[in-house]
Fold:
Amino acid sequence: MSHLIAPSVLSADFANLQRDVEMINKSEADWFHVDVMDGMFVPNISFGFPVIKAIKKHAEKPLDVHLMVADPDRYLQQFKEAGADNLTVHLEACTHLHRTVQAIKALGMKAGVAINPHTPVNLLVDIIEEVNIVLVMSVNPGFGGQKFIENTYHKIASLRDIIRSTKSKAIIEIDGGVDMNNYKKLIDAGASALVAGNTVFSSANPSQTISELKNSKSHL
Ligand code: DX5
Ligand code: ZN
Structure:
């Protein structure tokens, strides 16, 4: 399967959100990456349910919702109702991660688990078979446009070993600092989905940038 591209709406022009949603609809992107920040788990606040519903109204591709939210169990049903197709929670934000993952799937969404740059992938060993997506943060979460952390490549390799040694069908999604210099290397390392915010929306031709990110041939 070819890798997936998920432009991050966090870097869109919120005053022209419908225009940017339509651009993604017409592009070769696979998902809308939707970053929800609560000002507690991360030192920033983004947007909540009304904005997600507004995106959903126009989006013709799945919403890949990334919750940077403390204790996300409180809101799973509401994110489903707002239109989330994939719902990713942070391992660091969940006391009972197994229960949270089951609850997300019971609501009919794909379940993702995100890990911060400092969190070892080994902590996923006993949950990996339950999870649809592992989102590896390649920057510290909270802001778009940050510098990619190089240690991410090691994490992808270790994660692939874990996935291979289990019955897991989880895909690896990389989020943060993905740009035109590192995207091919990330795909070669084993990433199946790439999030891109700044790289897409600050480019002169966002749709063409998405196409380039999508059509890179693996070196493998
Ligand atoms: C960061 C968010 C990312 C962010 C990525 O906390 O989770 O999804 O939008 O933005 P870029 O691609 O600009 O690093
Ligand atoms: Zn994200």
Strands lie at 4-7, 32-37, 63-68, 86-90, 110-115, 133-137, 171-175, 193-196. The mean pLDDT is 97. DSSP finds eight helices and eight strands in the chain.
